[in-house]
Amino acid sequence: MEKITTLEQAQSLITKETMDTIHLGAMNIGEDGEVKKIMEWMFEEILPPLKIFKWSETLKWRQSNRFVSFQGLRNKSLPYFRFFPHGYSGLNWTDNHAGFKFQKDDEDINILDSIINIRPSQKEDPVTKELVGSFYYHGAKAHWIIDSIRKEGLWAPIQGYTSNPYDDKIQFTIHPGSVRSCVFEEMEHDDMECMIWDKSGQLSDLPSATFDEVLEYWGKKLDQRGRHKNISFLFTRGVIEWQTDLAELGFRDEVFKFNKRIHDLSAGKPLTIYIGYDSTMNDLEGVCETSIRKTIEESHSHGSEAEWYRYTPTIKMLDISKLPDYNREYANQSTEFTYSRFLIPYLENYEGFSLFIDNDFIFKKSLLPMFYYLNPDDAVACIKYPQYQHDESKFNGEVNIDYPCKLWSSMMFFNNSHEDCKKLTPEVVNTWTGKQLHQFEWTDAISEIPQKYIFVEGYDNPEEKWDYTGIHYTRGGPWIDGMDFSSINNLEVYNKYKNLYDNS
Whole-angstrom Cα distance, residue 36 to residue 230? Predict the structure, then answer.
């Protein structure tokens, strides 16, 4: 890599067409010198416009289908769920090459041993081990990144440049970004800051930043974190990569620790999905299950290697007739599983992770990325819905009572071994009031899943919530005998999976 120390060198070597990687030096923010002169010239003569904006600006491009998607974490979640019950990731140094190994109980094991449909000759192939281990590591890293961002915020802006792959599409190349780009799109947090070089000229409606404004921006970021206000500049692919003390080079150790904890908490068990079963709802739980399996299947890529990461969810029906420890009197309940859902940690022996879903959820996309919002320190993760103004009566004629935390318990990821989950004994589930259970008086350790994932039929505005993972039909539908469902919206999604279920 070439290094430049003077403005004259830069002017003799660099043009707008230069794609080489060149180190332009480093400087302390607030000081003048040769490096600052080089960068001022680069901004004036060489570099494309630099745009600093919030992620919310991408909304108009995404709604008009102009933004080239990173596909979120639907695909990257598959190796994560496939392998975390079997072990955790670690760093493997071989001949000065850093790869990823697979461990269990602090011993190295072969990640390929957990794959049934792999040729015996491939099981000891180091290249295959490296490939599969890398996919698993990156799926695990996504969980750590989301947890870190939610606790500490985004330390540095999303950095990259635009390209124009075809038509009027806008594409971001984010670096480093093999996982981060998918995480940012998955989270879709409006306040995340972006620093994007507009190589394609498609962000001309946004103001361009000057070099002095960029220095001021980085200075504030470094001050906020108590870091040294020094910045270095790497010219590569026709743009500048900013290098500061905000880059946490030791983050891999944190990823490995986080991943080990998730593995340990799994107790060697896969995520178990429970769907509420109600004998009066005409196989609604089967339609829900079909939508879950189909959307996860659609998240898989194609090719022989994709089979190594194939994830098949473990799904059970929560049927009170098959729960001998559940003896609560049926009264003032809208469904047969109104209270039995809280028995799930007990049913799983207070081990591993479980997901409960009301049977009136139908999914359009894989639900697996929602697990990434579970903080392993917490007992449960759910969507903390606002206080909707609900209809006066439910689909079955029961009085519809509004209360704090309503709908929160309609979908819950349980961290079954958490001390608060262990409070949910059969005695508690059989005797506690609905308020105590459904308003989460048994825990305050609740991770929040963003509301964007679930469209609540009849209450959410489709113009505001337009890209969602699933629909919750809280007002009923054609599965309720004798119900007039002409006012129920979005039934085309239900009908799609009902047809698949009927023909399966």
Answer: 12
CATH architecture type of domain 267-502: Alpha-Beta Complex (3.90)
Tell me the pLDDT tens digit for each residue of 228-253: 999 999 999 999 999 998 776 678 99
The Cα–Cα gap between 383 and 407 comes to 8
Q: What is the pTM of this model?
A: 0.93
Residue ranges covered by each domain of the chain = 2-72+154-243, 77-151, 267-502
Q: What share of the chain is helix, strand, coil (3-state, %, to 5)?
A: 35, 20, 45
- Report the range of poorest mean pLDDT among 128-132, 301-305, 451-455, 485-489: 301-305
DSSP per residue, 254-290: HHHHHHHHHHHHHTT---EEEEE--TTSTTHHHHHHH
DSSP 8-class letter at 192: -
Q: Which residue has the tokens 């001021």?
A: 216
Give Rg (Cα) of the chain. Answer: 26
Reading the block at residue 500, the tokens are: 């698949």
Among residues 503, 504, 480, 478, which one has the least CA distance to residue 490?
Answer: 478
